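Q: A reviewer asked whether we had any structural model of the full assembly, not just the individual parts. We don't, so I'm hoping you can provide one. Inputs are below.
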Amino acid sequence: MKLNMSANGGSAAGGKKIITRFAPSPTGYLHVGGLRTALYNFLFAKNQGGKFLLRIEDTDQAREVKGSDKQIIDILNKLGIKFDNSPIYQSKRLKTYQKYADQLIKNNGAYFCFCTPERLEEMRETQKQNKQAPKYDKTCCKLSDQEIKDNLDKKMPFVIRLNVPKDKTIKWDDLIREEVEFNSNDIDDQVLIKSDGFPTYHLANVIDDHEMEISHVLRGEEWLSSTPKHLLLYEAFDWEPPQFAHQSLLLNPDKSKLSKRQGDVSVQDYLDKGYLPESLINFLTTIGWTEESGSEQEVYNLKQLIEKFDIKRLGKSGAIFNLEKLDWLNGWYIRQMKLDDLIKLCQPYLKEIKDKELIAKIVKIEQERLKKIADISENIDFLYKDIKYKAELLIWKKSNREETLENLVKTEDFLMTLTDNDFTQTETLEKKIITWIKKNDYGVGDILWPMRVALSGEQNSPSPFEIAWVLGKEKTIERINQAQKLLK
RNA sequence: GGCCCCUUCGUCUAGUGGUUAGGACGCCAGGUUCUCAUCCUGGUAACACGGGUUCGAUUCCCGUAGGGGUCACCA
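A: Here is a predicted structure for the entire assembly that you could use as a starting point for your response.
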């Protein structure tokens, strides 16, 4: 059955409600790829007026990192991605999985396996040597009821395996990849219940998706080859499977699956550097997704994304996670911000500066230069610390030492005539100084270049008006005076 | 290696059986009252290859190559 995706009412053909989920395992930080998956599921559900649920897949006790579930939820909330349920923990549903596993054993969809890890390893080694795909050889599937009972009575450790049928074609209509087909002979008898009694991903995932009435599963392409196993499970249970959509992977610059080692992959790391939630969301969803053809929009907020999101517009090929565009996007969002909001965001990065007014001024003149908030602390020492530079730097390319000194003296004299009040706004300062330059027919660069270097000590910096505004009249004149001494 | 997926500028991508193959980022150049940044204008740059099908393929089909994913009592 094909679901009608164009419905706006939130229900597909057959009256089935749209429900998606995000199902992270709490094994560490939230990965940018994970965020993208969460985002797509969220956007799709909200676009369809459906529900977006959270499930914590904590069936691997060994890999679990305490507290990471809370962290993941926190970040998602911070980014505006809200769930319609309180999280479901798989570790609390062991009995349910057990019950369904028993059912599978009864209908021959699964079987007990008593093979030791040693035997399995040996078997795989032989298979490898014979250039065969490593695959369980179904030894325990042939055990008689009596043998199984005896082993169980002897308290032999066991797992439960999926009984994959022979010579069967398994196919489905993937929402992104269209028809995908596998032969069951290539599929391993996957472990469903581990010897510690916990289910594996495959079992728990299918049972939970069914019980949570998940209608659409959007997940990474790395799951494509396990989908046949899941489909087999749905069939064994006689359940209707959800619609699958396997989205492309985020890639390293060398095109391998995005990993640590080649850069940051933790969402928190990006947040810490001062990437804004808006740009992270914008960037992550538009990597691999475009709205209807013809649109040339690059900047989207969450609300717009919800309005426009469409699974059909997700791309098939992997995408390199390239920071250049993120930087541009983030800079764009920073430039659009209200100054007061930006100041608040910048404060944690300017702990060294106690003067609140000074912080506000610094943020104002740096706003258009920032790519990320953390950049605010770079190259601003000259605004509140003593400066040091070579005298030659003061001399403009079209000028010389004598002229420069002369101009600095003139500038100082002129600045002396200004009031403290003139220094309360960059615009006033700029207007007064430019008027003075024009009136006396001085060269703009002849005056402004030395003035700026005298104030900043830098080759590149904000304009002299902005720096003077930050420094105030007294400090400004003091620095121009210093520059004169340096030239003598 | 088996199986599966993918392939348009450097990157993210739009697109069509006949287009000057479009946009964005980056880069380059010019302009915007000094430098940087911003902003504006312009420029650079792509249909992996080989066969078909067709009057005509970047577009449809087949193959090749390349890349990727997956082959656990991890998810």
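A: Points you may want to mention in the reply: The two ends of chain A are 87 Å apart (CA to CA). Residues 1-13 of chain A have pLDDT under 50 and may be disordered.
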